Fold each of these.
Amino acid sequence: MNNSPVEQVFLTYFYISLTVLSIAVISSRNIIHSAFFLLILLLHVAAVFLMLNAEFLMVIQIIVYVGGVLALFVFAIMVMNIKEELRHRRFVKFAGAGLLTGLLFFAVFYSVVKNSRYDFVTPITSDTVSFGRLLFSYYLLPFEILSLVLLVAMVAGIIIAKKYPREEK
Amino acid sequence: MINDYLLLSITLFTIGLIGFLIRRDLIVMLMCLEIMFNAVNIAFASFSYYSGNYTGQIFVLFSIAVAASEAAVGLAIVLALVRSTGINHSDGIKNLRG
């Protein structure tokens, strides 16, 4: 089974735009520009979720990532008050080795993914009701443990970032 | 087909990995972690779509929650590091006991 032409057009668009946006995130000189490119990238990923019939995940992606995580990033940039980003260098000394590692990783995974097939019966329909039924029946215990993880992360974030009074020598 | 979505996923993951390895700024390294999380989420959602059950989408939900807590703790660590030493680059950290 092949893609429909509309799906192919959208897939090509998302492939090109996500690649360009992620390269822009890792190569822009100003950190706040990186944050804005990351904002557009997260919205595009939300649209990819919508193409995969996962509209609940699209909403969660926009609420949690764009509304929570990205706001946290912008807030951290504001608190740290980073100004001197315009003159110093962006990459570490051994950037070539990192690039080579990444390209090797891509080559290995591309050789696996290139011919992958999945003989599916029917793709899922977008159905938030059965998603919620599965989440609150079979996956109830992981869901509750996840709330504990979020609570511990919140407390840890507050304690680590707290401003301690300076010690007297 | 599923290999289009998987190709998109590994491309995003590779770019995030390269960015994590070669950038100096700690905040941009955390942003690359978010890119890698998103790539894995696309792979999960595409497997869920093509196999016809919702377990992959539930794993995406869990992964988003873990990514949110990871961003909170990571940014708190970077903030504490910048406050105590004034360093915000990964190759400027030279001693373990600040």
Amino acid sequence: MPFIPHTAEDVAEMLASINADTIEELFDEIPADLKCGRLEGVPPGLSEMEITRLMMERAEKDGLYLNFIGAGAYEHHIPAAVWQITTRGEFYSSYTPYQAEASQGTLQLLYEYQTMMASLTGMDISNASMYDGASALAEAALMAVRLHKTSNRILIPKTVHPIYRSVVHAIVSNQGIEVVELPYCQESGQTLSESLAAFGQKEFAALIIPQPNFFGVLEQVDALTDWAHSKNALAIGVVNPIALAMLTPPGEWGSHGADIAVGEGQPLGIPLSSGGPYFGFMACKKALVRQIPGRIIGRTNDLDNKTGFVLTLQAREQHIRRSKATSNICTNQGLMVTAATIHMALLGPEGLRRVAAQSYTNTQALIEQMEELAGVKRVFSGPVFHEAALSLPLPAESVLQTMKEQRILGGLDLQAHYPEIGNAILVCATETKTAGDLKNYTEQLKQALNS
Amino acid sequence: MLIFEHSRPGRRNYSQSPATTTTDTGNIPKNLLRKTPPLLPEVSEMDAVRHYTRLSQKNFSIDTEFYPLGSCTMKYNPRACNSLAMLPQYISRHPLAPEDTGQGFLACLYDLQEILKSVTGMAAVSLTPMAGAQGELIGVMMIRAYHESRGDTARTEIIVPDAAHGTNPATAVMCGYKVVEISTDKEGNVDMAALKAAVGPQTAGLMLTNPSTLGVFEKNVSEMSRIVHEAGGLLYYDGANLNAVLGKVKPGDMGFDVIHINLHKTFSTPHGGGGPGSAPVGVAERLLPFIPVPIVAYEEGKYHWITEKERPQSIGRLSAHMGNAGVLLRAYVYVRLLGADGMHRVSEYATLNANYLMVELRKSGFEIAYPTRRASHEFIVTLKDIKDRTGVTAMNLAKRLLDKGYHAPTTYFPTLVPECLLIEPAETESKETLDAFVTAMKEILVEIEEQPDMVKAAPHNMPLRKLDDVKAARELDLTWKPSS
């Protein structure tokens, strides 16, 4: 019996103690007409050897590709130690650290994580993580509305990841919150504060500012942050954590800094894995701490005055406040944050900076090589970090299809979300790409365009 | 010692990041460039490995201790589930890679959807929710979308039993509903008179956990279903306790319209120190149009995503990609290892273990909250009399259990039983472990009588003694600072 240790003798002794004849008798409070009998549609069990064969066959069918897609999920090198330590049973199979004395490992690690994320984002505090970047952004919007009190309007640029926008819409619209989308400059690919006057006439709770934005373009974050503050609204930064090793953190944007910073934590040591599990991060100014959702770890002392760590400010959370909680969220992404913390510790400030610098350099090199091909050019003039939109002389779909046959994922077709741009792809080259990879890419793109 | 305290300026790991020394930032304007490096530790690989290995050793975990944590289903997490989900092709697949480059991956997801449909009796399943609370949110959003699609906008209330998880009322509020709490009768069932009084044309739905968090099966569930449906409301099944009835009862057969399943409980994906979870939602026929996307379909020999295009009334997307895909793969390996027979056995042995432990603890002198009922896969011990007599609380006993090498049961939940311990020994624990746990509980019972102050000051054998929660909340210290 897989994963059940009972011998026949055990079962007999246990039933005798309970004073029941059969295990089935223990289900006698369930009305007979509700019992389902045999499960149909569930295949018979496999041995570990058989399921290994099946999973390996399916994996081999999918194969491996040279990947140049980014668009919110980025391929980076993950040091071997990260997942070897993360999947130790004591991290992998432990529960939420409610029993602090039996969870000091996870709690201290989360405190270290909060410190690292607060510093990376330039904010005062960080929570212990959210589900993913998109839902973290939705929670930041809800937080801003709770703080503003008189406006339930959120401004979100069209340069924010289109799926993030739809997730924000799906989550906040239940609470009657109005989400207003802002246009971008078709030339620079940026959200320009000078074109926002019309949107600022009516009160709003927050302006969301992506950095870099979905097109890979860097926004003029100082002007946008100051504009939001001049309208008595919060500024919420949506940022890439690798880019923060190179770019001004949200806490230093404009005259007073953004108020909340969120983003997708995946680039910090989490494999692409078809979209999850990842983790979202959320950091904010100290004054907002009682409105931040999710778990928070604090440092304190034990009875002998020794330093220790506990879950704190739990009075905000659903298990205490029930219907009056700041959010219904009950979990963080503990294991993912374990990996991210170890990842950041292994890379350190200089390692993280180099990952960012090499990703930037590779993308610049790739853009230059691509622009040498006839009819290929950058869509936007704004500066980029490690991703860029390039227009093609042929429909993107067929070009990407041809490249895929050479086992290259050439980028993301922008047609579905930004039809106004025409034939264009979003391309990303992180530090994982060699000079040979870039050359291979350009060569295959050239052939696809000529075929 | 914190990792930052191991840090030395200039120490770093040369093999794990690019060799580049360039600081070229091209055409990026100066005001957009970071001026001071982030506060990350500068340590060697060995420093980091030692530090985090040592931290891990300060944790309790299923791999090291018995974890009788009620309503959390802390069963063994098979290692094969992890190693097979981490095959290179699965973990390096980009979420936006074309469907035809992920047919093997999609086949696993499709099979999992079908198996979950079979065991729950629902018409369709979406795998996207990333945690139990998000599954609930999505479920209640679908209830709302259903009523709105019919122009039935007067429904403003969600009914929740007082024994429910805190996420239930919090979720209803996030969906813009008013929460109506109904009481529980002496036998641990939902008070039917209270339910009848609460339903009406304003009722959008009822959220129910069955077996409930009191550890008993709601015998009147069919009647409850009839009452709520006749009033025009829908029934939501919180799958937190599905482990107790897996292969015995299907939520669909109990009349539920929408459900969520906690894969990190019933389907053995790891709790990971507090996530990631994964909570697929299942729907009955009438909620099909509203199911969240993407879901996987199989047509003409190919797997493909169903998106907003095919489901224009969908409540939409709740995650940037495909939920917690890696967790789904772990659950898939688990269900294939179990097969149909194994699934029947999950609830059978979980229930056997719970009833055995309940009876043994009762024989040892502990008071059971609902002594006339069968335990489902969990049950409640109340220390009310002990506390009144000796001042020793459920939390004191919980902390004393840590000293004896057992994780504490769930304490003070559900809130309606005073001084309660909610105890759930999952099916993967052996009789010897349960017997040893009973012995430890008996020892504590003696200690409570003979040295109550020692029990009140527990734990004594952990790396730290009792921690000061009040100080933590009053003097917030949430990040390390170099001077501190």
